[in-house]
Amino acid sequence: MNYFPLLMNIDYKKVVIVGGGHVARQKVEALLPTKALLTVISPAVTDQLQHYINEGLVTWIEKTFEPSDLDDAALIFAVTEKEEVNNAVEEATQHWQLLSRADAKGRVDFINPAVVRRGDFIVTVSTSGASPGLTRQVKSQVAEQYGEHYAQYVAFLKEARQRILKVFTGDEKKQRLAELLNPRVLQWIEQGEKQKCDAWLERCLGGKQ
Predict the structure, then answer these.
(1) Domain residue spans in the chain?
(2) Distance (Å, rounded) from C-alpha 30 to C-alpha 38?
(3) Shortest CA distance to 177 belongs to which of 205, 206, 208?
(4) What are 100's strand-pairing partners?
(5) How far apart are the C-alpha atoms of 24 and 174, rounded to whole Å?
(6) In whole angstroms, what is the distance from residue 131 CA to residue 136 CA?
(7) For the purposes of burial, counting CB atoms within 10 Å of the CB of 34, is it exposed (0-12), middle (13-18) or buried (19 or more)?
(8) Nearest-angstrom CA–CA distance, 61 and 49
(9) Residue 33 pLDDT class (50, 70, 90 cuts)
(10) Tens digits of residue pLDDT in 11-31
(11) Are strands 114-118 and 121-125 parallel, antiparallel or unpaired?
């Protein structure tokens, strides 16, 4: 299967996870950085899931699955260990809803890549299910290469780009935007010298606001 890579905006959309075990916890943790409305359907949940529920980050409906549980859901995860339950979830999923089955049986509209997230900077890794071990290995390498300072670096690039777009046009705009990727900027951020980035940006803008 040739998957189409896509970053989705699921803020304030209902996401249903059917199951309360280890895989359900993984799905919840992958979704927590978003503002999705997370609902877990399961008679029981892990201790870590219970923590998220107690924190108000997840809604838990303590029962076995029923088709009406999927009403208005944009994304659906069938992650139980019982194939018959996952089958029931698939059968209840409407054509316009996106379903992911952890057992990879039947309908699978999407899969989750491994994610390295540094603020607005997001890198995803996937082997399309062929080798989860390799996916984890590459994710670890990417996480090491792009450290936590990339969150501040990308935040600075975002702010600088917005300011440049307000005051420059044409070739001058292109030149200024290209200058933003000066290696010194990343080096200053990594060294904790953000003030040098700000001063450099002011020189780049040439006093224009």
Answers:
(1) 1-112, 113-146, 149-205
(2) 11
(3) 205
(4) 77
(5) 46
(6) 9
(7) middle
(8) 12
(9) very high
(10) 999 999 999 999 999 999 999
(11) antiparallel
Give, in words, the CATH class of 113-146: alpha beta
Distances (CA, A) of 99 to 42, 91, 93, 112: 17, 10, 7, 11
* pTM, rounded to two decimals: 0.87
Q: Tell me the two tokens of residue 86.
A: 């996952």
Using alpha carbons, select from 144, 160, 156 the residue that is nearest to residue 188: 156
Query: Whose CA is closest to 74, among 40, 33, 37, 106?
Result: 37
Number of H helices, E strands in the chain: 8, 7
Tell me the HSE value of 121 on the side-chain side, using a 13 A CA sphere.
Answer: 17
Note the CATH number of domain 1-112: 3.40.50.720
Place of tokens 């780009």: 161
The first and second tokens of residue 189, run together, are 């951020």
Q: What is the pLDDT of residues 146-163, one digit of tens each?
A: 999 999 999 999 999 999
